[in-house]
Amino acid sequence: MRKSMIKFSSGMALVAVLVSSSVFASEESAMPGDLANGKKIFTEGKGAAVACMTCHGETGWGTEAMGAPRLANLGYPYIVKQLTDLAEGRRVPSGAGAVMPLFAQQLTEQDRRDVAAYVNSFNTQPELSDLKSLKDSGTPVGEKYLGQVIVKYGVLGKVSACQSCHGYNGRGAAPIFPVIGQQKYTYLVNQLHNWRDASRANDPYGMMRAIAKNLTDDDINNVAAYLSSAPRTTGDTRDGTTGNPKAQ
Ligand code: HEC
Ligand code: HEC
Q1: What was the pLDDT predicted at 235?
Q2: CA of 132 to the centre of ligand 2 (A)
Q3: Which of 4, 31, 142, 234 would suit a FRET pair with 88, their CA atoms being 20 to 30 Å apart?
Q4: Do the beta carbons of residue 212 and residue 180 sit within 8 Å?
């Protein structure tokens, strides 16, 4: 018994070392991205691919109306994976994003790494969703304080806490779990519907489909309302929601 415990824990240690070294390799030492080429693709496009900034914004913070996500600092390995999944038919968006597979196919593997490295190098102020104007224009917007409960604790017996995988307030846990905090509201709502009806199915081990199938429409609007402006650290209280569920 004792022996097998030791074996188990040294196995876990090995996994931890492997995971942390792969994070290191992909995010720091071996960031295999040519920023100049990434910038050229982002600002000018390539072949049939229109300049990424047309829809994802000059600073990479996304476009609400179009459902185009923030790409800025979302996580280098995650962006590379999405572009590869889009190019190879594992992710097939509808709506304004239906052009993404064709665009991703215009990029070589190196181009994808370059553009991912470029958007991961941005260092601008967050441009958060304007929930009030969304509400005023008739979009259903959820309640932040209800969403915060799901992000932190999940739904008892049904949904795991989002932060157990995505990190505190969805700030991301590379290489697998993308940043979902401070992502655009419309995009978050769209993706949660896509995971729920399995029209997006490129999640490893079906992790997100298993989560989303137990979310109601209200849950989706509530988590998206909270996440779209959630502070990234416990000390970052710019939007006043940390520790005070009543602040809207
Ligand atoms: C015509 C508008 C448009 C252009 C131009 C465009 N995108 Fe997109 N992109 C979208 C939309 C909309 C989505 C959301 C797709 C969905 O709903 O699944 C998206 C999704 C993505 C995603 C997935 C992000 C995530 O969080 O999973 C990546 C990565 C991406 N685009 C990269 C790029 C790159 C790189 C370029 C330039 C080569 C580019 N896009 C050009 C509209 C665009
Ligand atoms: C068991 C781990 C796990 C939990 C818990 C989890 N997620 Fe995820 N989530 C993932 C993984 C893995 C991905 C990346 C899928 C991929 O590679 O395309 C993801 C992706 C997403 C995306 C897409 C991000 C993008 O840029 O397109 C959204 C949105 C999301 N999760 C929201 C949530 C919400 C909201 C919760 C809580 C209700 C949650 N997740 C809980 C594992 C998890």
Answers
A1: 53
A2: 25
A3: 31
A4: no
Residue-averaged pLDDT of the chain: 86
Distance separating alpha carbons of residues 133 and 15, to the nearest angstrom: 46
- What six digits make up the tokens of 39? 């910038």
Q: How far apart are the first and last CA of the chain?
A: 52
Q: What is the pLDDT of residues 75-88, one digit of tens each?
A: 999 999 999 999 99
Asked whether 204 lines ligand 2 (CB < 6 A), one says yes
Report whether residue 207 contacts ligand 2, using a CB cutoff of 6 Å.
yes
Residue 125 neighbours by CB distance under 10 Å = 7
Ligand 1: centre distance to CA 52 (Å): 7
211 lines ligand 2 (CB under 6 A): yes
Cα of 15 to ligand 1 centre, how many Å?
33
